[in-house]
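Forum: Protein Structure Q&A
Topic: Joint prediction for protein chains with partners

I've read a bunch of threads here and the consensus seems to be that you should model interacting components together rather than docking separate models afterwards. I'd like to see that in practice. Below is the full input, 365 residues plus whatever partners are listed. Could one of the regulars post the assembled result?
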Amino acid sequence: MRRARLGCLSTSHGQIDTPQFMPVGTQATVKSLTPGDLRASGAQIILANAYHLALRPGHERIARLGGLHRFTGWDGPILTDSGGFQVFSLAHLRRSDDDGVTFASHIDGSTMRLTPERAVEIQEALGSDIAMMLDDLHPDLAPLLVERNVRWAERSLAAHSRTDQALFGIIQGGVDADARRQSARATAALAFDGLAVGGLSVGETKGQMAAALDVVAEELADDARPRYLMGVGSPEDFFVAIERGIDLFDCVLPTRVARNGQVWTDAGKLNLRNARHLDDPGPIDATCSCEACRNHSRAYLAHLFRAEELLAYRLASVHNVTYTLDLMRRIRTALRDGTYASLRDVVTERYASTGARTDKPPVTP
RNA sequence: GGGUAGGUUGAGCAGGUGGUGAGCUCCGCUGACUGUAGAUCAGCCGUCUUUCGACUGUGGGGGUUCGAUUCCCUCCCUGCCCA
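Posted by a regular:
Agreed with the consensus. Here's the joint model:
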């Protein structure tokens, strides 16, 4: 907690209060949500993905159409991931070497080559506000990949030319303290606009993640640049990371679990598909001001999920994104007010156990 | 009334032409999901049992048989054709 930071980031498309959460819109859309939905939920910045968009519809096409902001209708800041995560998630469809990564497209099997230079080129064409270096992410081989990632960091910087776009480096090293430290030190020595922590929440324990973040926090103690923990996370994870100096987060979790019926509240998580919600006239969360909570009952949402109606996915996503962004705002306020510890304890306790056990009784109007 | 095809675990089916029918898909119940190949995946889904396992179940009744989903008799129900 002594390392928690409050701040503000400037980009070409607006400012970002930190700590901040970035909803993920891999294919130039946060699934089921319109830009209007995102604005209403309080989103300040969203993600998109270079690998996916280069394959479809093509980054040159997006550039011709005026760039990602015009293409999507989202005029706020956008961060693009390089495709490094796909090196991990599509491991069976690619082969990496010291120079780059070769994918067999998950769409049609065609060959797609990604190098640090090419990842920068794609992201410059997309016109995002923040670009990420290409990284090679492999939990088991992380220590062996530290050097390669540092070389890729240098090459990314050398290739980057857009002055209206920030470029972030990525610290790897897995859960090995020495490797993580070495990666942090070498990456921080380079002229990136921000530093990300990658290779976490890919199967390691919570304790291992916290330990890795401790190492990074130590190494970056005097570094003022924004720090971004990639791929995290859940409500309880935010506190662990913020206390270790993290400013930015992205994660598919709020939107993915929403589509599968799970919604988040201060009382914990709950599954709208559960039979107990079928007759519940109360909202998901009586304290939430999102569209779903203002206008609809748990019973209605439970019905929509059973009927596989598309509105279910949107309303649940609207709620989870709103809840997550509200939580970030409450954390910023709590850091300012000195009430952070009690907020952390309440949320952490509620999310330590299952939704069924922590669910609050139905709201009676 | 005659003919014909059927009746299998909530639904829809598969199977089985005398030698232990709990198999599938839905529905239903629960869980998982962390820089999105995910509106996905997994487990359960007759009864008892934590498990192992035991028991019950092929429309009803009866018969033949060591043994019947299977063969015989009878009744009920459904679809279609004819009158």
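Residues 354-365 of chain A have pLDDT under 50 and may be disordered.
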